Structure formats: C-alpha cells, structure tokens
Amino acid sequence: MKKTNFTVRAFVQKTGQVMVRVRWCGKMYEVGFSVGYTIDPAKWDADKQLVKSNTTHKIGSKTIYAREINGAIHSFLVSIEEAFAEYDLHSQTPTKEELKLLVNEKLGRIKQNVAIENTKTLKDIFQDFIISRPKEGNWSKQAQYKYEQMWNHLQSYDPNVSLETLDRSKIQELVDWYTKNEYCNRTIQKQIRILKSFLRWVIRHGYSIPSGVLDFKINLRVVHRTVTFLKYKELMHFFYFQFPPEKEYLSKARDMFCFMAFTSLRYSDLAALKHVNIVDGRLEICTEKTDDKLYITLNEYAKQLIDKYSWYKGDTVFPVPSNQKLNDYLKEAAQLAGLDREIVQVYFKGNTRHEDVCKFWEQISCHDARRTFVCCSLAMGIPASVVMSMTGHSDYESMKPYIEVADETQKMQMEKWNSHQYKQEILESVDKMTTEQLKEVCKFINQRIKHIA
C-alpha cells in the first residue's frame, strides 16, 4: 500500500471565513475547503487551529457556539484523512478534483445519487435532521422541541409543502398564516429563524433550496420582551422571608432560586451541581447548555445556602425538584412573600399593539434568578466584564438588555455627581494637613466605623 504524505491546516481568512487547506505530493497540489462559518478573527486560536473555546459567534441572526464550529473543522479533518486512506488502499494519489469531490461526499455536501434526493420528501429530510442534528450539537430536549414545534406549524400551514415550493413567497404566506392565527410578531420572527436554521442544515447536506430564501426578512414590528428580575431589595426580602412550617417546600424552592440569583447558575447547572464543583470558595463547572468552563466566586449568601443543605446526602449539593415543580413552587412562594411589582409586556400581533400587565409572582421562573444576578451585580457597580466571566456571556451585545434595565445602576452612577463635591473638598483639605492632623482624622474615622458597626 502506497502512503501519501499530506498536511492539513485550519485557518481564518481576513474576512473571517474559516478554511481548511490540504497540501500533498510535495505541495504540488493544494485544495482549500470552506468550513461554512464566518467568525471574528480575534476569536481564533492560531496555535490550536481551532476557534477559542467558550466563544460565541453571530452569523446572521443566529448565535453559533465554538464547539459547533470546531466540530465542523474536526469533521473536515476526519473526512480528509479517510479520503487519503481510501486512495492509499489502491496505491493511488488523488487529483485536486478527486479529493475535493470525495471529501464533500463524505461530509454530505454533494449528493452522491440525484435519484435519492428526488425520492425524499421534505418530511423525510426533516426526520433525518431531527435524528442527526441533536447528536451533532448535543441538544437538550427543549432545543429539539423547538424544531419539532416549527415543523408542526409548517405542516399546519401546508401539509403538502415541499423543498421545491418553499420559496420566498411561500415563507411570506407562512408569515401571513401566523399573523392570521394571532401569533405575536416576536414568536413569528423566532419561528422563521428556526426554519432558516433547518434550511441551512439542508444545504450543508447536499440539497438545493429556492434562491433567496435565507435572505428573506420579516416586515413586522417587534418589541423586545421586558427583562424580568428581582431588584436587590426584593431579592434580600425574598431570601430572608419566613414561610409557615407547613410550607417548608416553599422555603426550599426559594433557596434554590436565591442560590441561582447569587451565582448566575441556570437550572440545569444547579440540578447537576456536585460538591466536587466547589473548590476553594468558588464554583468550577462546565455548563450543561453551552459547555463553557466557568469559575464563580461564592458570596456569603451562597455559602450560607450550601451550609444550610449540608444535611442532604444525595449525589448533588441540593435536593432540586423538577424544573416544572420548582417554577410552580416559586410562583406560590413569591406570591406569599408579596413580590407583586407589576410587569408590563408590550408586543405586536400584526400591526396591533398589545400590552399585558401582571404581578411579578405570576410570571416568576427559574431563569429570572440568572437575570437577577446580572442586574443586581451591575447595579452594585461590578464591571460588565467581570459579570460576563461568571455568566459565560461572550460579548457586550448580549449584556445590553440587562444593562438597559438595571435602573439602579444608573442611580448609583449618577449619585457620584452628588458625592463628588464632598470628596473633592475632603481631598483638598487632606493635602493641607500635617502628619499629626492626619493621625487624628484617621483615629476619628476608625472610631466612627466601630460605632456604626
């Protein structure tokens, strides 16, 4: 068997396009493969020839995680190695065209048999997608459910829809169907985004779709959802609230919420948290949703909750109920604790503006705890970069909704205008003092601090 020596290198062009380059036969031949993703070059690790871990990338309206792009690069490397191995078995060397064709076939980017495509309906293709895509992306059940929901909507609109007929006009008709059935514009936008994600997978697996479909833009007015969270005083009131003895389950639900609010954990990470994840006063975890490696310093309140549940001898730190039960208990607990601040949600259905008003306890859920952590941390003046390092947010843009609603942050920062004049007078006076005078001032300040404490 003849062995062909070849080199493979993954790299990023100046445009941000991720590429894989192959050279063989004394570098006489060279083939470049586009991986299909565009990234910020600053997020590329040139030494590892991979996207930097724990980063996210905006491609159109979709957020792509580093592991997905790196997985695609790995697929190319494996396919290239397999292609050369097949030629080596026959002591042959591929031409540039032959290698490109074989690698693309292995990746499913080229239809090996046109007749097969013609026999597959859009439903067949979606079934292939819903079986293979969750494995490729390590999806949760919730993520898979969103695509199944999109498919059910598409079938309700047109049971006979096909890949050939799913053009721009068809998608516009789908948008009209959503509007007619009184879906809010925000939901319609989300469902079309999920449909496009499915169609991008379809293209990557060698199928053709009508031109211009992925460029379709929805002409509907969309207002972002109000970010719901507890303000600091509300959070501490909830934390210290005494529930009746017969409502002990509410105390546990409250404690689970507060621990997430003190640490930024998602429900999935709270439920999986083990004592081995607690190292030297901080959490060291790999998140369930994004596989981010996070280091979160525990504040005193979080430590109190860990100590409170030291009696629990399960595999995890806390006895966490199911997500649904916890959300149900939280609503009851929040109502009893008087968390009745009104929340206003504005949305559009077609061109009609709607406004829903509810009490905070009516809509509270586990994810409000994570939002609470972000907003309270920002309100205390903790830099956004530090908050992002604990939550796993990869860019400032993803933090903007929290910054915009953290009104306490603005109040605290504007208070600096009020206090600055006094600080300036003190500093000017201090500069004029003798050493003995400074000692007396220091002594006076220490006494006042002890008195206040």
What would you say this structure looks like, in words?
- This protein folds into 4 domains: 6-110, no CATH class; 116-215, DNA polymerase, domain 1 (Orthogonal Bundle), CATH 1.10.150; 232-405, Orthogonal Bundle (hpI Integrase, Chain A), CATH 1.10.443.10; 422-452.
- The strands form 5 sheets. A 3-stranded antiparallel sheet has the order 1-2-3. Strands 8-9-10 form a 3-stranded antiparallel sheet. The protein has a two-stranded antiparallel sheet with strand order 4-5.
- It has 18 helices and 12 strands.
- The chain is globular, with a radius of gyration of 28 Å.
- Mean pLDDT is 86; it is low at 111-117.
- With 453 residues, the chain is an alpha+beta fold.
- It has helices at 66-89, 96-106, 114-119, 122-137, 141-157, 168-180, 185-204, 232-240, 248-263, 267-272, 300-308, 323-336, 360-363, 367-379, 384-391, 400-405, 407-432, 435-452; strands spanning 6-12, 17-24, 29-38, 44-45, 50-51, 56-59, 62-65, 278-279, 282-286, 293-297, 342-349, 352-359.
- A hairpin with a 4-residue loop joins strand 2 and strand 3 (29-38).
- Helix content is 52%, strand content 14%.
